[in-house]
Write a sequence for this structure.
């Protein structure tokens, strides 16, 4: 490719979106204020275009040239099931939430609009809970704002399980300037699975008629095929530290009957089965109990940011009459995110999983770039010549 695609990367974390976009993309500006993620980003990508200030302090004068794309993986803590449900607030509200950092980002985009140099494309990435929180009010507020600042938009759900043995569904809101002609081969007449899930369809229905007018059903085509043994190629069974039999038995003792039955079935199987293991608080009668919960499948559960010992990612391995448990290795988690061997993560376990748990799966970004973002930008450039 003779000419690179230019982009701004907001809420950049460790730069996993940048990794997914790849070498054909030129980063003009990157921003994040978390010191652990900032250090990780700079170690991997350098500090030439990096700004470590609060998004509220960034001005359009800090954004060089014109970007084809602005990517924003805005904070999810107030949107996810594991979070506190505070949502994104509003642009003028006195109460500030972490996920509400989206508003100053969109204000920056609108300020660029006043100078006629707003990006042709925006991507807003977050957890699927954004669609349903407060009956879709927060999702609708984002769509309304995008419309006000001159964009049409649509959303897709991309689950990392199409590319990696990790279930990690994320919603990507992809917006394009209203005066841009969208090629027919990049859009649909209506939503289709797996990109437009029932949750997304409910979110769409929560929008007003005016917001429906600006909606685009993006076309991503057929998902790739994940080979059946992908998980076995990542999870190490030899030369790793397993928990003691006593520790494993304590975990088993905290399982509810349904999970115990699941474990017994896996334990009795010939061969080895690898499963996800989580600790969760469950209400039982008048008390909260910590329960061990397991799932055996070809993909592990979604990697999360640790917020205490109970939420650290664990695996359980059963079969041939045996059961073993241990923490997931940092190197395994990196592979489950699609990071290459050269990617530098923090040395401490907790910090490494903070970067990973808040990141976007690299192949999901590459897939969007190949199927939609790059063809869209090339079409825009062709029409402008």
């Amino acid at each position: 490719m003779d000419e690179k695609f230019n982009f701004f990367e907001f809420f950049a974390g460790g730069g996993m979106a940048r990794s997914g976009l790849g070498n054909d993309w030129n980063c003009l500006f990157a921003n994040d204020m978390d010191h652990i993620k900032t250090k990780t980003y700079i170690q991997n990508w350098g500090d030439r275009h990096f700004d470590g200030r609060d998004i509220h302090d960034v001005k359009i004068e800090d954004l060089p040239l014109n970007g084809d794309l602005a990517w924003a993986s805005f904070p999810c803590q107030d949107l996810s099931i594991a979070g506190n449900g505070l949502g994104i607030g509003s642009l003028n509200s006195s109460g500030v939430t972490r996920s509400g950092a989206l508003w100053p980002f969109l204000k920056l985009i609108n300020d660029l609009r006043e100078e006629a140099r707003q990006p042709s494309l925006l991507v807003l990435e977050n957890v699927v809970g954004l669609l349903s929180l407060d009956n879709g009010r927060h999702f609708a507020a984002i769509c309304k704002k995008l419309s006000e600042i001159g964009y049409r938009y649509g959303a897709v759900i991309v689950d990392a399980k199409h590319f990696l043995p990790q279930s990690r569904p994320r919603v990507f809101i992809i917006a394009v300037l209203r005066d841009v002609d969208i090629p027919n081969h990049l859009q649909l007449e209506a939503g289709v699975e797996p990109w437009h899930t029932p949750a997304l369809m409910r979110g769409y229905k929560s929008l007003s008629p005016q917001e429906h007018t600006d909606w685009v059903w993006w076309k991503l085509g057929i998902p790739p095929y994940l080979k059946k043994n992908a998980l076995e190629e990542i999870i190490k069974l030899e030369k790793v530290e397993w928990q003691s039999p006593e520790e494993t038995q304590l975990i088993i003792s905290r399982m509810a009957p349904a999970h115990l039955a699941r474990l017994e079935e896996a334990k009795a199987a010939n061969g080895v089965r690898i499963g996800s293991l989580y600790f969760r608080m469950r209400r039982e009668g008048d008390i909260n109990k910590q329960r061990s919960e397991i799932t055996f499948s070809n993909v592990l559960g979604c990697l999360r940011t640790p917020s205490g010992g109970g939420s650290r990612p664990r695996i359980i391995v059963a079969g041939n009459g045996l059961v073993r448990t241990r923490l997931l290795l940092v190197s395994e988690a990196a592979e489950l995110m699609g990071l290459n061997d050269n990617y530098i993560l923090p040395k401490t376990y907790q910090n490494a999983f903070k970067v990973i748990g808040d990141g976007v799966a690299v192949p999901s970004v590459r897939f969007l770039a190949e199927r939609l973002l790059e063809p869209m930008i090339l079409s825009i450039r062709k029409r402008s010549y």
Q: What stands out?
A: The chain has a mean pLDDT of 91. The first strand starts at residue 5 and ends at 10. Residues 190 and 217 are 6 Å apart (CA to CA).
